[in-house]
């Protein structure tokens, strides 16, 4: 495992307590060191650092997920709704699919429309299996494709500081969003 990847994984492991989310100092290396190439809902190539300079929530999902992934999106929308107008204007969201086969740019755009998100501040993306696995590793997300085409996966939501360093992490998409919202608001 590359040194920066190991460091990022250790930093994220330290961010597991929701009680610590709103008071946690920025720690660990920037996840923006990952050189993965992703493609957004418009098929535009981009890096994991597409929102460098903004507070960012980043999570992983797959579009045909029946339960957990819609909850992840709703959870992030709840965080966003709790932000002051100034903090919301600066806030960004990056959702990376690990199902590139089905989550084409057209499918990602349809997911964005279905959830009524602001595509000026939200991006749905995917990439090659190797690139997506790099993103998953640095975020501490485990997933695997099952024989029936669904995925077993973690539901990790990570808040990144403007420089890509993890600030808070939540692995329960039905938990209280207040700690994540407070941490995002504090970065205003």
Notes on the protein architecture:
It contains six helices and nine strands. By secondary structure, the chain is an alpha+beta fold. It has one domain: Glutaredoxin (3-Layer(aba) Sandwich).
Overall CATH architecture: 3-Layer(aba) Sandwich
Poorly predicted regions are 1-26
Quantity of strands, as a count: 9
**CATH topology assignment:** Glutaredoxin
Mean pLDDT: 87
Q: What number of structural domains do the residues give?
A: 1
In which range does the helix fraction lie? 25-40%
Q: What is the tally of helical segments?
A: 6
Beta content: 15-25%
| CATH homologous superfamily assignment | Glutaredoxin
Structural class: alpha+beta
Biggest sheet layout? 7 strands, mixed
Broad shape: globular
Can you identify the CATH class? Alpha Beta
Terminal residue distance: 34 Å
The ordered H/E elements are: HEEEHHEHEHEEEEH
Instruction: Describe the strand arrangement of the main beta sheet, using strand numbers.
Output: 2-1-5-4-3-8-9
- The Cα radius of gyration reads 15 Å
Search tags:
alpha+beta; Glutaredoxin; 188 residues; 7-stranded mixed sheet; disordered N terminus
How is this fold's topology laid out?
Elements: H1 3-13, E1 37-40, E2 45-47, E3 56-61, H2 68-82, H3 85-90, E4 92-97, H4 105-114, E5 122-127, H5 129-139, E6 143-145, E7 151-153, E8 157-160, E9 166-170, H6 178-186
Parallel strand pairs: 3-4, 4-5
Antiparallel strand pairs: 1-2, 1-5, 3-8, 6-7, 8-9
